[in-house]
Amino acid sequence: MKRILALVLVAVTLVASLGFASLADASAVSADHGQAQGRGTLTAAGDGIAILGGNGAVSISGNGILWVRDLAGGAIIEVTGYGEKKEFADGWLQYSGFGGNAYVEGTRIVVVLAGVDIELSAEGRGRVILWGHGTYELSGRTADWGTGFGARVKL
Fold it and tell me: How far apart are the first and last CA of the chain?
């Protein structure tokens, strides 16, 4: 429980410092490690924080706190499992105590999971930040998540 709380605090800090809206705009490429360009498919597994934003489809599972936002409207959002859902006036959906699966598909979507046992696959165009411990695969290349700035990936 303490580990999940610590991850949540880090997620909130990262999100506040990076800004969710900028994550959904896949126009910039960072010089950090774990980076690729174009359209593609990403798979990842680990513990920590996964922040995904862009156009496409995301399938994610794990235990912790899940946030979802549909910036363009019309996204498909399917969440199964347990947890307490809360809707915010600015469009954010929060699932506290999340333990299950989520599928989100659309344009200008943002999906964030802070927790453990995270498994995800994403297809489309956008940016991903993975912070914590785990591995990811993109374009046939496998790499590790990291602490510090984590792994920044552009699909």
Answer: 32
Residue 76's CB is within 10 A of a number of other CB atoms, namely: 11
Nearest CA among 93, 85, 64 for reference residue 2: 64
Question: Taking the domains of the chain in order of start, what are their residue ranges?
Answer: 2-154
Pairwise CA distance, residues 129 & 20, whole Å: 12
Query: Which pLDDT tens digit goes with each residue over 90-134?
Result: 999 999 999 999 999 999 999 999 999 999 999 999 989 999 999
Q: Is the dihedral of CA 69, 127, 31, 5 positive or negative?
A: positive
**Of 51, 66, 48, nearest to 17 (Cα)?**
51
